[in-house]
Amino acid sequence: MTNFVNKLLLSLNETTDLNPYNKLDKHIMVSGMKKWIYNILPAELLVMSVKEAVELLVTINESGVFYKTFPDKIETPQYGDKWGRIANYIEINNRAIAEMHQNRTKNGILSSIKLLPAIPPSAKSWANCVILSQIFPNIYGDSYNKGVSEENSIYGIKLNASYSANIIDYDIDMPPLEQFSAFNDLAHFHGLKTGFRTVISADQIKVAKPYEKDIPFDWNNTEHLELFINEHVKLINSGFEAVFIDSAKHIGNYDMENYTGVGALPSYEKMQYVLYEIRKRSGSTTLSFAGEKSTGDFERYKNLGLTTGTAFVPPDDYNTVKNWSYNLKYNREYAPGVEVSNDNDEGGMTYEKRLARINNLLFAYEYPSDKLPSFMQMDGLFPLRYDTNTHHLMMTNPSYSTDGTPQSHWENLFAKDDGRIYNAKTAELFSYALNL
């Protein structure tokens, strides 16, 4: 059995001998046996080495046992096959937190590892699941950052072209899928489920061909269909258990007057086949498929093979969320989710409103087993600087570095003193919920 974390450390010219990491002891939130880092700015973690991040995760692990080397066998947190029905999904824009070296973007998976200690682990009754925004190369400008107003959309992807150079460390001797496996093992060790975002609008997908121009993706092309399925199966086999599907509401040309994607969508039956085959070929019975705005017609989306969807339950009123939780408690395979924010968030929401929504998603139910799933973006835990927002960072890839270094970008990407205070308040809410 390959120890992917040790392999990553060795590939980074580190040793695999671990020592307790005590520099952030004053920032450890404790909730029962569960621990994570709070009252923190992301830059304080992102400047760490990967080895320091591994040592920190081992230092704060739930068992209380310090492992002198990272364990060989790591299991995903166990919540049964239907875990995704009540999970909290937290999307991390791994491109935005990648290393910005002058005009180049790289190593987003390493940055994601460093951020893991500051994400609250799963509760006794439900899982927290980290969704990574980027996995595949984006069509234009992959591995480069551009000006704040120059489009470099994360929603346009290439298949059959390995994985994004924004994310993977291509300077080390470790294949991309093994780097994802190392991330997944560390996330699972910290008590988190993991997943990734994908797109299904045909004109937002290109198929790379060796020594030829990229060609447009076509859902009616059997070769393309097989490629789409197998690319997702490979990622699931690296340890991911959730897939967030952009534009899922409109599968089968449903409600197209509100469709904002570009290009043809798969038919309902074809998407049923895709999700069925991903489950079958991966051999995983625990997969969760979350659809963007795939709510309203619950039977339609449940029968499609989805587990949950966004933007149906009004998130701002505690009693409304609790009533929906009660009304849907017998729907164990599919339920709509509560949103703190989504990838189209253009900012402007007060901290107080975000905290109230987090309170509602964590506590608005009669029994924890009836909890509705929920969705939030990175800024639900780590507020961004005042002049950017989640959607802007999905559509563009600016560096906020003032001196061309990654450290400066990380320091300037997020809110500062007020962001730290907000982060501490979110941790307090999670601390009350994790032992329910």
Major β-sheet annotation: 8 strands, parallel, barrel
The helix/strand class is alpha/beta
Tell me, what's the shape?
globular
What string gives the helices and strands in order?
HEEHHEEEHEEHEEEHEHEHEHEHEHHH
Provide an overview of this structure:
The chain is an alpha/beta fold and 436 residues long. The chain has helices at 4-11, 42-46, 50-59, 108-115, 176-189, 222-237, 268-282, 298-304, 318-327, 351-363, 390-395, 406-413, 417-433; strands at residues 28-31, 34-37, 88-92, 99-101, 104-106, 128-132, 157-159, 193-198, 205-207, 215-216, 242-245, 288-291, 308-313, 335-339, 374-377. The strands form 4 sheets. Strands 3-6-8-11-12-13-14-15 form an 8-stranded parallel β-barrel. The protein has a 3-stranded mixed β-sheet with strand order 7-9-10, covered by helices on one side. It is globular, with a radius of gyration of 20 Å. The mean pLDDT is 97.
What descriptors fit this protein?
alpha/beta; 13 helices; 3-stranded mixed β-sheet; 436 residues; 8-stranded parallel β-barrel
Structure described in brief:
With 436 residues, the protein is α/β, with parallel strands linked by helices. It has helices at residues 4-11, 42-46, 50-59, 108-115, 176-189, 222-237, 268-282, 298-304, 318-327, 351-363, 390-395, 406-413, 417-433, and strands at residues 28-31, 34-37, 88-92, 99-101, 104-106, 128-132, 157-159, 193-198, 205-207, 215-216, 242-245, 288-291, 308-313, 335-339, 374-377.
Chain-wise SSE layout:
Layout: H1 4-11, E1 28-31, E2 34-37, H2 42-46, H3 50-59, E3 88-92, E4 99-101, E5 104-106, H4 108-115, E6 128-132, E7 157-159, H5 176-189, E8 193-198, E9 205-207, E10 215-216, H6 222-237, E11 242-245, H7 268-282, E12 288-291, H8 298-304, E13 308-313, H9 318-327, E14 335-339, H10 351-363, E15 374-377, H11 390-395, H12 406-413, H13 417-433
Parallel strand pairs: 3-6, 3-15, 6-8, 7-9, 8-11, 11-12, 12-13, 13-14, 14-15
Antiparallel strand pairs: 1-2, 4-5, 9-10
